[in-house]
Specification:
The chain has four helices and three strands; from the N terminus they run ααββααβ. It is α+β, with helices and mostly antiparallel strands. The protein folds into two domains: 87 residues, no CATH class; 50 residues, Arc Repressor Mutant (Orthogonal Bundle), CATH 1.10.1220. The termini are close together.
Length: 151
């Protein structure tokens, strides 16, 4: 992402507001903005890092890192080596040690029962298999995303 676009937009907005206050305020504002530029750039880098951390927290088997490329932050998505799924159970061996209670609307329970019946499974087996499938990490390579964030 190119911070220069966001910074230019911020400078333009501030200059527009300062021009309304008169030429002296506009000149003082330009000097003040120049002095603030390093802090503004650092704050935008912090926002990119916070966004990467937020997105990483929502991904199962990947993480998002912020790397500098030509002075601008770049978000890089990579496999999270630390996210190791538990080993699958041997065929035919059930792990019935855990029990959970889920409260859901009756229409959803009916939809699940119909789907289980259609697949020839019990509701419990259908839900367990659905959860196993949904919990498996997807195998993907490194994905790079480059974009400009308009603030």
């Amino acid at each position: 992402m190119q911070l220069s676009h966001a910074i230019a937009g911020l400078e333009e907005a501030v200059e527009t507001q300062l021009r309304l206050a008169g030429s002296e305020a506009a000149e003082a504002g330009a000097i003040f903005m120049a002095a603030l530029m390093p802090a503004i750039r650092e704050s935008m880098m912090s926002v990119a890092a916070m966004a990467a951390a937020e997105i990483s927290g929502q991904l199962r088997s990947q993480s998002v890192e912020v790397r500098l490329a030509d002075g601008d932050p770049e978000l890089v998505v990579s496999e999270d080596r630390g996210a190791v799924p538990p080993p699958p159970l041997p065929p035919g061996e059930d792990d019935n040690e855990a029990r959970i209670t889920v409260r859901l609307p009756s229409y959803l329970k009916d939809l699940i029962a119909d789907a289980a019946d259609t697949s020839g499974d019990s509701v419990n087996a259908y839900v367990v298999e659905s959860l196993k499938t949904a919990s498996q990490p997807e195998k993907r390579g490194i994905t790079r995303h480059r974009t400009t964030i308009e603030l």
